[in-house]
TrEMBL record:
Domain Intracellular proteinase inhibitor BsuPI, residue spans: 43-141
Protein name: Intracellular proteinase inhibitor BsuPI domain-containing protein
Annotated organism of origin: Candidatus Segetimicrobium genomatis
The keyword Signal belongs to this UniProt entry's keyword annotation: yes
First and last residue of the signal peptide: 1-27
Phylogenetic lineage: Bacteria, Bacillati, Candidatus Sysuimicrobiota, Candidatus Sysuimicrobiia, Candidatus Sysuimicrobiales
Keywords: Signal
Superkingdom: Bacteria
InterPro entries: Intracell_prot_inh_BsuPI (IPR020481), IPI (IPR038144)
Length: 164
């Protein structure tokens, strides 16, 4: 089952981009990276969306190693998604959300995977629908205290289109 765990980790490990837990008819763009042997995959359900159509995002953490991997987060937020266009921040998943102000831990046992699903409604941070064009999505998995997810951060990104 797909679940969403809104939390954040800051070890300057910038993570993945969008995806979907449902079986898409057309596979969308995907990117992956790793931290502590854990594979971090971000995937969108398709490469192009019509205007105002929700963008389905999937972030999957998989531990293929023989040892448990534990991540500590400075708050209750474990990840973030950022949408940019031509290097400019358009939308940030965590914008306007409240998170517990307590350290949070995530442990993946050997062979364990966790899937986090989210959806972007194609509105910018001011609540306006974005115009057609090419966009990038970035996922951030921060664990160090003080890291602020930002546009232009290093890490896997996927590109996708919004068309009229």
């Amino acid at each position: 089952m797909c679940s969403l765990l809104p939390h954040m980790r800051a070890s300057n490990v910038v993570f993945l981009i969008a995806g979907l837990c449902l079986a898409p008819a057309v596979a969308g763009p995907a990117a992956h990276t790793g931290d502590q042997g854990v594979r971090i995959e971000l995937r969108l359900n398709k490469p192009a969306y019509t205007a105002t159509e929700p963008v389905e995002i999937m972030l999957m953490l998989s531990n293929p190693t023989s040892t448990a991997a534990t991540f500590q987060f400075p708050t209750g937020q474990m990840f973030d998604f950022l949408v940019t266009r031509q290097g400019k921040l358009i939308w940030q998943w965590s914008y306007g959300r409240a998170f517990t102000q307590a350290f949070t831990r995530l442990t993946l046992s050997p062979g364990e995977s966790r899937v986090f699903n989210e959806r972007w409604d194609q509105r910018d941070v001011q609540g306006r629908y974005v115009p057609a064009g090419e966009y990038e999505m970035l996922a951030v998995f921060p664990t160090d205290v003080g890291l602020v997810p930002r546009a232009g951060a290093d890490g896997p990104q996927v590109r996708f289109q919004i068309v009229n």
